[in-house]
Amino acid sequence: MLKKVVLGCSLLALFFACTSNEESSSSSSNQDDFDRSAMLVNWADNIIIPAFQDFENELETLEANKNTFIASPNQANLDNLRASWLSAYKVWQSVEMFNIGKAEELLYSFKMNVYPTNVNDIEANVASGSYDLRSDNNNDAVGFPALDYLLYGVANTDADVINKFTDVKYQNYLSDVIDDMLALTTIVLNDWTTNYRNTFVSSSANTVTSSVNKLTNDYIFNYEKVLRANKIGIPAGVFSGSNAFNDKVEAFHSKIYSRDLAVEALKATQNFFVGKAYNQTTTSTSFASYLNYLNRADLVATISDRFNNGLAQLQTLDANLSNQVLTDNSKMTQTYDVLQLAVVPLKVDMIQAMNISIDFVDADGD
User: Fold this and answer.
1) pTM score of the predicted model
2) 116: preceding bond cis by omega (within 30 degrees)
3) 277-289 residues labelled b (16+ CB within 10 A) or e (exposed)
4) Which residue from 73, 184, 219, 345 puts its CA 20 to 30 A from 100's CA?
């Protein structure tokens, strides 16, 4: 009996000693002297908050133009409403990657940009006049893709689109979708400016739940999944053998903006990598700064080159990616391959250099 007690105590002592050594080793290996706080301040004050402020302004313009159109459905007001939808949609490409804080809590991106939109759900909601737009069941019946359908796909001609909105049920649904997009954005922005900003910039340690680590994961996920896969790979059929899906492009119903939205998303990705202030030319502490500090200027050059190559390749595509899929899908798969070349430098080389772990599951074999 005594031997068992002694053996048990020895094993416990060994366990705690090993655990302590592992934690100490992990703690020491996860630290460097780079000023992560300065990077967080630049991200919050010069990029994230200004981007959300601009996005809220764009949605306010969209809301105002919606009100004008509902009060007087005509071609000029429809044109203005569509233009403000597109302008806001482009700015969305600069905020979609920031799935952290209140945005993560609200599942904000799922309420703003799930596509392809579900036309049957939209029409059922309109017909019933009773719906909960924040229900998960309506994620594919709200946001920018729903507006894409309502403003472009609800009828075959502009005259018929305008006529649809003489019906109060269509007016109400259009109004409710836009108003909720603005309301959600205001919640996210207000949280950044009143509470979350200080929490965000103070979380500078290298842990799984710290701000740098979480946003780094969001950034890579956004590039790999939201941009590379959703905008290009899925419509091109990269993940489904020979089956391409021309109807799964972003902004499918408006027909001519899907490429431009992808370009905007990649430019936002590139700007964030170098720490470029939102809508300005100045840059500050960033991923590029961090990698240069770690003597990985080679990796900065590689990632930058691959972003530039991706932008150049996107510009070779038809403005309507749905049409590109139908007429020459090989260009879509080539574009996917070019975008894919940045994944390993970001997802493997960069995070290894910064000693950060990936926290999302890769389901497409990359």
Assistant:
1) 0.91
2) yes
3) bbeeeebbbbbbb
4) 345
**Cα gap 7→3, rounded to integer Å:** 6
Cα of first residue to Cα of last residue in the chain, in angstroms, is 54
Count Cβ atoms below 10 Å from residue 198 Cβ, excluding itself. Answer: 11
Contact 150, 177 (CB under 8 A): yes
**Domains (range + CATH), the chain:** 43-195 (1.20.1420.20), 205-366 (1.20.1420.20)
In whole angstroms, give the CA distance from residue 53 to residue 278: 10
d(CA 293, CA 350): 12
The answer to whether residues 99 and 109 touch, using CB atoms and an 8 Å cutoff, is yes
d(CA 362, CA 243): 21
- From 328, 280, 243, select the one nearest 47 (Cα to Cα): 280
Beta carbons of 358 and 351 less than 8 angstroms apart: yes
Contact 343, 295 (CB under 8 A): no
pLDDT tens for the chain, 366 residues long, are: 433 333 343 333 333 344 333 333 333 344 689 999 999 999 999 999 999 999 999 999 999 999 999 999 999 999 999 999 999 999 999 999 999 999 999 999 999 999 999 999 999 999 999 999 999 999 999 999 999 999 999 999 999 999 999 999 999 999 999 999 999 999 999 999 999 999 999 999 999 999 999 999 999 999 999 999 999 999 999 998 879 999 999 999 999 999 999 999 999 999 999 999 999 999 999 999 999 999 999 999 999 999 999 999 999 999 999 999 999 999 999 999 999 999 999 999 999 999 998 988 664 545
The answer to whether the Cα torsion of 296, 298, 303, 304 is positive or negative is positive
Whole-angstrom distance, CA of residue 181 vs CA of residue 161:
22
